[in-house]
Amino acid sequence: MVKKDAGVKIPVLDKDNYFHWKVKMHLHLMSMDERYVDCIEKGPHVPMKFASRVGLPYDAEDVEIPKPVSEWTVEDVAEVHKDKRTMNILFNGLEQEMFDNVINCTTAKETYELEMEQDEEIEKVQKKGGSIALGASVNQLEDDNEEAARAITSRASCRSDVSKGKGKMTEEEEEPANLDDLDEIDEHIAFLSRKFSKFKFKRNS
């Protein structure tokens, strides 16, 4: 999903593409003006001037101080305005829900850092949720393995009984005692084995 600014596509951030958006946005700003990147990393440009040396010793070092707005040059105004242009790009790179979280920011650096904090929190929650889901899958497969082990033991016992002509089970037993039922057990065991193999492959990859 993209939006346009002066004919250039702006990468839009959502909850699932934080890492890719960060790389794309950094490159997007760099391609437009390197000062845009300075705005998100160092903050807005502040026009400076040397303080008056009146009353200072001859060998005193020069000291820079911020210029009053009344003394800004055309170049100073253009440099200061780049921070607002950077903010505009960042704002247009957000979905409405995420934009609401940074609407009160006053600089591009503040906007960018707040976006990063929020996205890192989202990423942590997603990873935690994935770990919980993985743990649940492991527990389920362990239960399936136990079921398969019981089925294998029952299968061996039942085949032995059938081969000896015993076809009867005690009243407390509920295992099948004929070859058709044993075939169903074989199919179930094969299914559980395939399921466990696929899970191990995904977990190791």
TrEMBL record:
Record field: compositional bias (Basic and acidic residues): 161-170
Region (Disordered): 145-178
Protein name (record): DUF4219 domain-containing protein
Species in which this protein is naturally found: Heracleum sosnowskyi
